[in-house]
Amino acid sequence: MSVSVRIPTILRTYTGGESEVVANGDTVAAVLDDLDTSYAGIKGRIVDEQGELRRFVNVYVGNDDVRFLDNLDTATPEGTQISVIPAVAGG
Questions:
Q1: I need a labelling partner for 68 at 20 to 30 A (CA). Which of 29, 42, 60, 75 fits?
Q2: Mean pLDDT confidence for 65-80
Q3: pLDDT surpasses 80 at 91
Q4: For the purposes of burial, counting CB atoms within 10 Å of the CB of 61, is it exposed (0-12), middle (13-18) or buried (19 or more)?
């Protein structure tokens, strides 16, 4: 399944400055694996050593946060837009 992945500014060094890239996979985990094949190291910035989403990174499939769906097992149908968004804290 080919999907579009929106890349935040902080991770664009991995994608050669591209703000949106295409990846393949039928789940978020498979898409991240495919991204890491094309853009080495990017997956490690999104998931931790245990393979879970990093605490301060949000991933959306369409408009839905994957933490409220099936996490990294969330389905990514053909044409889906995935957004990787670093959490913002303020005070």
A1: 42
A2: 96
A3: no
A4: buried
pLDDT digits (tens, 9 = 90+) for 1-53: 799 999 999 999 999 999 999 999 999 999 999 999 999 999 999 999 999 99
Q: CA 72 to CA 67: how far, in whole Å?
A: 8
Residue located via tokens 């605490």: 55
pTM: 0.93
Q: What are the CA-CA distances from residue 44 to residues 1, 62, 78 (Å)?
A: 22, 22, 24
